[in-house]
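Protocol step 4 of 5: obtain the predicted structure for the target chain.
Materials: sequence only (see below). No template structures provided, no constraints applied. The aim of this step is simply to have a reference model before the mutagenesis design in step 5. Sequence pasted as it appears in the construct record:
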Amino acid sequence: MTLTAATRIAGVAGSPVAHSLSPLLMNAWIAAARLDALYVGFPADPARAEAGFRAIPALGLVGLNVTAPLKTQALAAADTANSTARKIGAANVLVNENGFLHAYNTDAPGFVDACERNNIDIRSGPALVLGAGGAARAIIHGLVSAGAPEIRIANRSKEAAHALRDDLAPKSIVYEWDQRDRALSDIRLVINATSLGQAGKGDLTLDWSRCDPRTAVFDSIYAASGTQFLAGARAARLKTVDGLAMLIGQARPAFEHFFRQRPPDSVDAETLLAAALAARR
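Step 4 output (structure tokens):
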């Protein structure tokens, strides 16, 4: 592809951002759709990110995906926001719409989409969410909107877990972090929404023997060597889904917001990203 002054530019902003697989996926979709566009990474200074986001319309960028820890700044920078972003309190997509900056949150629908594509029925029984940060907020919003019959929350800070419950799921049940195994009784879906499993963050373990054999286990993060969280679940013969599914799930609507068309089905996103992740081992 030949880049010109007319080439539309979108990207992902994060701190850090070099590890992101989003440019690989988005540029594969761009090429398949034959768009005159380019998607790149933007290393962002968290202290100045909000001001940088406000410059998106002035610079003529199509928009940006935004990763942690910049999603609250993204929402604050926007002129307008959709109801999902406002409810969650964070935005992972910023779009230049006729010179105004509009914020979206595609993490919540991306999680639901990942579950549906992996034949996980959110309505089949109780769901346990581990964590109470931005990822957990998006996932719980998705669970509520998709009709989860019961939500349980376990987090290292019980105060943060109670705040999350009060904001998004008043009927959910909060467990002490060191009592999280007790929450596995009759559970049908377990989601890691913490940073545990990422490089240097430590591992997350559970007593998988407490789970019903029909339990599905979802990790919101991805790591080149996999996570102990999912390895333990697989050893217990439970269905597992890694963070690539949520990455792809949130990217699909983001692509539509940027380029006003669906990403081409001709790209096998799962195989593309799995191969890229395997190459990092």
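Step 4 remarks: DSSP finds eleven helices and twelve strands in the chain. The radius of gyration is 19 Å.
Proceed to step 5.
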